[in-house]
Amino acid sequence: MTDARVLPDGREKRHASWLELFYDLLFVALFAQLAHGLVADPGLGTTFKVLGFFAPAWWAWVSYTVSSNLFGESGPGHRVLVLLNMGCLLLMTAGVASGLDGDVALYAAGFAASRVVMLVLVAAWHLAHPDDRPPSASYICYSVSAVLWAVSIPLGTPGAYGLWAVSIGVELVIRIREQIGVQPSVGAVRFDIELLVERFGLLVIVALGEGVVQIAAAMAQIEPSSKVVMTGLAGFGILASLWSSYFDFASANMTVAFEDARVDPDPRHRAFALVRDVFVFGHFALVGAVLAASAGLGAIVGAAVTDTDFTGDLRLLCDALVVYVLVGAAISIRVTGEATRMIAGTLPCLAALAVVAAFADRFSPAVSLATVLAIMIAGRLGPDRP
User: Fold this and answer.
1) pLDDT at position 111, please?
2) Is the pLDDT confidence value at 70 over 50?
């Protein structure tokens, strides 16, 4: 009998390492900077700007996490390279605030440097696994990406954004196609799926944690009144509903779906398609929605403290939750194939959130968040989904 802790290609299954957890710590700070930008201005323009800065950071995390899942960790040299990559992410984090104001130099320099480090890191991984597909494509995509991001520094905005989009597009196409090539041709899938579920779940926790920080920081501004306490507790309840819906689904359904893919007539491509759709693309929108919701919650609780207008913040929250529910339903359908029941359970939740957003200026912060919480809880009474 095959050991339950051994992958089909003979590697031992593992949990997230201390180095990977330390790596995720950079995203605690980066998410905080992005959320602060939304709290300061929850308008549509700022939302798209924040999304533009979130996307490269997301891809930096994914490109490292997926490669680490495939090739593992080895030796002090690997540790040094990952720490250098973290230094690049620190530059990106420090450059978010100025980047949102139009000065993208520090953020772009950090990402350009991270591509150089990833180039060396992937080369080291391939040297340690010479039987895998040659890394020439990785050399090309990371080199092109580093050049484009370096050129974007003197170019400035808005031209820099176009170069960033081209860079991420090149990396997505080349890296996804190349990583399909390192999967065994038949009978096995090289990914450690349980580790992938764990790693992406940890990033969801980081995004949810930003919501907790935002709410607590807002409540701590003054001696909290009963209305502030009720608003904060309702906001935390919304975060708890997101946590419950995601992890009830992730722990039960995602791993099962990938195990089922192993017995597919073409397990390599089916499993890789699930990784691409569920983790790379699906979780980009899912984590982004949680981050935006966290910013909205913090701003609404802050409005309860200061008795200021929170209409834009409530609309940001509702829009983020609509994206979360929609993407969660799409992921559920992709994983389980149960479209009819999922759509029937999702539509009432979306309609209710739209109504709250439409009448955002009619209620107090506490009543608004309590209503949103009731909607999210009611949505959880249907089929399990993120």
Assistant:
1) 97
2) yes
